[in-house]
């Protein structure tokens, strides 16, 4: 009878371990922590990508401040009637420049509000929407015409009369815009920058007084 290495089937095997084929790590099933981790990584990547895109956009678009310049005016009428109603006929000639080399601008809305001494609003005017290519200048003609009830306090009435005798009026124009940028073939969402023009406008009837070209301050 051979004392061979006969192993009875019903006895536990205590010999050298049978090498066990470990499945490759990748095929291990993803637990709930792993899923969370992956989701977090994806979200983080998206946030970082959006951040970089925003940064690039900022650097490209930020220098694009439209430049508004009032180059000449025609103030045909500016009278205070009955101490409380202003009759006006004012035309502004304005250059709107897009200084950027790569960006076009859609002016979806361009509204002009005229005020006497900054806070006495008396007129509104708008221009039709338009597109402005890069490095382009648009010449706008903006006319305000009509009459408006304007109850001025006595000291403002006094300065009105003083200005009338000098032939110049201090008139402020606020430009409200709604614009979109065209960058590299795609169009951005809307921005609503505004501009302020502080003007000293001579009455046209006094042929000797000149208007000095005035640059407006743009806030983007
Ligand atoms: C306007 O007000 C002044 C005083 O500020 C007064 O002398 C003048 O009569 C008033 N004019 C009218 C048309 O009411
Ligand atoms: C307003 O002024 C313009 C010139 O800028 C003139 O053509 C127009 O007739 C004026 N309007 C009125 C009502 O006087
Ligand atoms: C500005 O735009 C207008 C109209 O799109 C075009 O006719 C003109 O040539 C442009 N000017 C410059 C300097 O690009
Ligand atoms: C124009 O304004 C000047 C300076 O205020 C004044 O001396 C001159 O008389 C005015 N001329 C007319 C036609 O109103």
From TrEMBL:
The chain crosses the membrane at residues 34-61. Its main location: membrane. Keywords: Membrane, Transmembrane, Transmembrane helix. One of its GO terms (biological process) is defense response to other organism. InterPro entries: NDR1-like. It is found in: Membrane. GO terms for cellular component: plasma membrane. This is Late embryogenesis abundant protein LEA-2 subgroup domain-containing protein. It comes from Coptis chinensis.
